[in-house]
Amino acid sequence: MVLEDQVEGEYLVVCLRERRLDAVIAAGFREAMLERIELGQHKIVLDLSSVGFLDSSGLGAVVAVLKHLGQRGCLYLCGVTPAVMAVLRLTRMDRVFRTFPTRAAALAA
Amino acid sequence: MAPKISSSPSPTCRSLEQAVTYHLQVTLGKSPDAADLEDLQLALAMAIRQPIIHAMNATEARVRAADAKQIHYLSMEFLIGRLLANNLRNLKLYDVCAEAATNLGFHLGNILETEVDPALGNGGLGRLAACFLDSLASLSYPGYGYGINYQYGLFRQSFANGFQHEQPDNWAQHGTPWQIERREHSSMIPIYGRVEASADAGGGFNPHWLEWKSLIGVPSDVPVVGYRGRCVNFLRLYSARAPAEFDMAIFNSGDYLRAMEHQVAVETVSKVLYPSDAAATGRELRFIQEYFFVACAMRDIFRRHFAAGHVVEDFGRYNALQLNDTHPALAVAELMRTLVDEHDLGWERAWQITQDSTAYTNHTLLPEALERWPVELFGRVLPRHLEIVYEVNRRFLEEVALRYPGDEGRLGRMSIVQEHPSKEIRMAHLAIVGSHSVNGVAEMHSELVKHQLVPDFYELWPERFNNKTNGVTPRRWLLSCNPRLATLISEAIGPEWVADLEQLVGLEPLAGDAGFLDRFRQIKLANKSDLARRVHEVTGLKIDPASMFDVQIKRVHEYKRQLLNALHIMHLYLRIKEDKVALPVPKTFIFSGKAAPGYQLAKLIIKLINNIARIVNADRQVSQSLRVVFYPDYKVSVAEIIVPAADLSEQISTAGYEASGTGNMKLAMNGALTIGTLDGANVEIAREVGEENIYIFGLTADEVILARQAGDIAQLAHSANADIRRVIRELAAGRFSPEEPGLFAPIVAALTGACDPYMHLADFADYAAKQEQAAADFCNTSAWSARALINVARSARFSSDRTIREYASEIWGLKQVV
């Protein structure tokens, strides 16, 4: 699993360089993200522009990250592909996450 | 590059030959010298795919340009039959293709016989769906089918010692030229999981569907070629695939077999068609199949709706959904979920759109056949949908309570959720509540739906209930299956009848034309000779084309009463053997049909008919005037050879049981006289052809109810009729099962028990009398032919074109796109 970090002002932009966020990488993804939060990164933009498939394990991992952050900070999603957006809509998670078309739009929020 | 052919202007024989040769060599990798009939069939199909796909794309462009409303026909079954001959005739390429085949050294008829007949349905319901698609395309309506791409169709039937044996029907194992995979339109379908009540980003109530498993629905399109080939719609069938080839995490841990298990489990969803009469209720896989294809269809319909530039609010303006029975009733919940959860519509607006878009066709009067799913199963597989169904029901029951204050019994009867004896979701109630239209499939059936099946709903919403009598497509069921008669008709009244069956009335004056009747009779005889040859090839039995062909072809079920037919044949056998009575005319009784694998009594009826056939056909004294055939593995292509050859059409269901029937229509359209009860569409056939041109017998539906209440009618009939007593006695004594005398005891018990709900013995005497009359009438060949011709001439009402026009104008609000 490839996660690329980039600090943009007060935000940490994490780009998941995988085509699928599914059961194969969900646990590793969740742990890596929680580690970043524990290291003090509480404003995170997750760039999902490479991800074309999201299953319930992958979605569960993203939800776990959001829950772990709680009131401490924020988790924005950007570059959400149509297939992933369909899953978010289908499960009503599009109302839980703030999504942005691009990284720049998320950082400007 | 493949040689180009087009349907307009008509391709030449030469261009077709070139295209076929190209596909033989390049696509199939065969040398023309080494090609067999099946290779030719595939190459020919590929050759005509080109103009079909061009026409399909052009049709789609016209629909888009017209900004037209579309109908989406949701059905678990599409019994489409072989497609090559039908497509050639609809494209008007049949004759030029026959010439091309001859030039290549083959006979087109032999090529066509090699095509696999996809058995993607059980019977009438699935074949109706296929006829409707043909009519939609032939009438240039934008109408599309959505269903499941079953890997295994209905089982293949063979007989071993007269018993039905079932073998899997892996119909597409060698591929099919008629499906175009649309992988780019695949859909992810979640099932299982749980719903967690939580808040959205703004703090509002927001239930989440979590921990689901994914199925991927991959569509394949079967082009549906309308008559004259201008309009080509599609039937979109979905296969279930695992999200990845297999679970890589498990695979990487080294457990290859377990990794494959997941993939196999997912693909099971589109693996096999459930036979009718199988106890599907409670079967999780069947429930998942129903959701799977509905969810795939809804995703696709929304995708196309948005791709056309429309907004969600206009969904009902541009889309109509027809539920073929309750199998797709989950569409109500899925549409609500999509509108509320995915598109943020308020409940009331979403409900209005759902009702405006959805219509439901009922196909059964048997309360026990109405689908119900245990709440536990429903909630486990579709947790979010169960919440939605509960909310639909809560609001619905509020409406009922307001209208009928204090009527608790009514609330219980009408509720979508059955509370006792076990908690179940009543799918018919969900379909009725969620639809703006509820229709039966024959006039009599529609009345019974209103007054017997769901009277509470009819009282609440009388305007919602209507009738749409079924029909059959004259392209397949006359033009294609009976080319001799089609040619004669065209010679007599011109060729326009194919698209306008009302014109058949022009044949009626010819019922007095001896020369025409003689040609008509010769055609029937030629069709019977064809069938006799086929029967000999398949069963080894020789039958006489000059004998009267008495045909009963349909699913084997007690209510359809193949057993009544069998009792009568045993009676005739005993008349000849014991009473030394000669029949007025030699008779050949022809059966074909499958029994559900778990329906033991129906399978025993098949065994009985096969035993009768063995005894009758081997008896030199009897077999001169009586033969019995059970043609194995009934399917569309078998019907296509039997229907044109029938003299007498057996439509003898217990009155009040058959919703409509469509075999009755096909046979009448091809010049068979009907012997039948006042059941289903027989009532309308009798009205159309006139009572002098049909043999109606037996108890009416009302009389069946009274007889059932009386309880002892079977015993009364048994004691009053010596013929019945003799048949039952001989059957019980093992005359038709000498090697196993008690074999048919369950049949004897069912017939003579306290209450046979199917009234076999009660109807026997009247049936035998009408049979005797029909046999006597058959001896007068010119009078019989005149009556047969009148059946053809008055069959216009039973064209599915008429049915589809009624659906389009009265339910769907659909316009033709020409």
Alpha-carbon distance between the two ends of chain A: 28 Å
Would you identify the CATH architecture of the domain at 540-799 in chain B? 3-Layer(aba) Sandwich
CATH architectural designation of chain A: 2-Layer Sandwich
Give the % helix of chain B: 40-55%
The low-confidence runs of chain B, each spanning 5 or more residues with pLDDT under 50, are none
Please give the alpha-carbon distance between the first and last residues of chain B. 32 Å
Assembly annotation:
heterodimer
Q: How many strand elements of chain B?
A: 23
Strand order of the largest sheet of chain A: 1-2-4-6-7
| Major beta sheet summary of chain B | 10 strands, mixed
What CATH calls the topology of the domain at 540-799 in chain B is Rossmann fold
Mean pLDDT across all residues of chain A, rounded? 92
Name of the level-1 CATH class of chain A: Alpha Beta
Order of helices and strands of chain A: EEEHEEHEHEH
Main pleated-sheet profile of chain A: 5 strands, mixed
Strand pairing plus helix content of chain B: what structural class? alpha/beta
In the residues of chain A, how many domains can be counted? 1
> Roughly what percent helix of chain A?
25-40%
Poorly predicted parts of chain A = none
Derived from helix and strand composition plus strand pairing, the structural class of chain A reads alpha/beta
Helix count of chain A, per DSSP? Answer: 4
Question: Would you spell out the secondary-structure blueprint of this structure?
Answer:
The complex is a heterodimer of chains A (109) and B (818).
Chain A (H helix, E strand, L loop, with lengths): L2 E6 L2 E6 L3 E2 L4 H13 L4 E5 L5 E2 L1 H14 L4 E5 L3 H9 L7 E3 L2 H5 L2
Parallel strand pairs in A: 2-4, 3-5, 4-6, 6-7
Antiparallel strand pairs in A: 1-2
Chain B lengths: L12 H15 L9 H30 L3 E5 L9 H7 L3 H10 L4 H5 L11 H15 L4 E6 L4 E8 L2 E7 L10 E2 L5 E5 L2 E6 L5 E6 L2 E13 L6 E10 L6 H5 L3 H12 L16 H24 L7 H4 E6 L5 H13 L4 H11 E4 L10 E3 H7 L1 H21 L4 H7 L2 E2 L5 E3 H7 L3 E4 L2 H11 L1 H6 L4 E3 L6 H7 L2 H11 L20 H26 L8 E6 L8 H16 L9 E6 L7 H19 L7 E5 L5 H7 L5 E4 L11 H7 L3 E4 L5 H8 L5 E2 L4 H10 L2 H8 L1 H11 L12 H8 L7 H19 L2 H13 L6 H13 L6
Parallel strand pairs in B: 1-2, 1-11, 2-10, 11-12, 12-16, 16-17, 18-19, 18-21, 19-20, 21-22, 22-23
Antiparallel strand pairs in B: 3-4, 5-9, 6-9, 7-8, 9-10, 13-15, 14-15
Helix pairs in contact in B: 1-2, 1-4, 3-19, 6-33, 9-11, 11-12, 11-14, 13-14, 21-32, 22-23, 22-29, 22-31, 28-31
